[in-house]
Amino acid sequence: SVEAPLFPYADIRILRLVGEGTFSKVYFGIWKGTSVAVKVLSKKPPAQQKPTLSPDIEAELSSLVSHPNLVKTYQYGPQHASSNQMETGPGVSLVVDRGGVGVWILQEWCDRGTLQDYCTVPKVDVAGILETCDIMLDIGMGIAYLHDWNIIHGDLTPRNVLLTSQPSKRGYTCKVSDFGRARICDEETQEIKTQALGTVTHMPPELFVSNLKLASLSPKADVYALGVIMYQVVTAKLPFAGLSPPQVIVRVAGGTSLTLPDEVPQSLKRVYIRCVSREPKDRPDAKHLIKEIEKVKQELCGRFFNC
Hints:
single chain; Tyr_kinase_AS; alpha+beta; Phosphorylase Kinase, domain 1; nucleotide-binding; five-stranded antiparallel β-sheet
């Protein structure tokens, strides 16, 4: 059977466990007739793990932001045993945390899984490149919104981008999720000194060449990660596959970057190269990145399709 925690409300029906990480578990459930994801965060992450936002702050931050390309948070609160009437599905048993040491976040359910799961076939033909542009626009608009609020996501990867079905030609929309490593940067300097770093394969070189205890995290780190995501979407390959995290750090710090296939249009390659530039100042901000990708899409539509 699957163990499920108790929540403060009796109107959440937990049906199954759908994911589990170092600091959290995610359940699929029904709330007021709506499919939802219920994320349960550990109050005290293991000491040996990298620091993240406290579960309370992550929950509050996710509830304050609102954008079509960000996963929506409906409610959040401490986990406690106040409702013995909450329903569960077959094979799901309840776990009562009477110390109230967990935090739960009730979020919209994204039925198409992660972008990581979706990136299984290379997208190097014209239709694939156009779809890549749409994916990057979705993610870019969500990130631009966060940056407008001086929020750096800090761990932007295809695993943290969810797909939800939409009645459109593409059939889905991408939504950025997981604010466990998000940071609010200084409004003047547009950066923050932090120890909390994200996924090594998607981290920019400036976070490796400095003292990691005083790494300068800026919105341009998210833009670099967007470039790596573009590589994954186009190639359907994991970045730096086969290398250990220390090996990735040595490669990236030494100036190695991934390259897009020859079939990719030069206009998109130029955008990609700017995103993964070694120097943060050479990368576009998220809003300019959106404009550049829109130009690539318009160019391709004009040449090959009536978009």
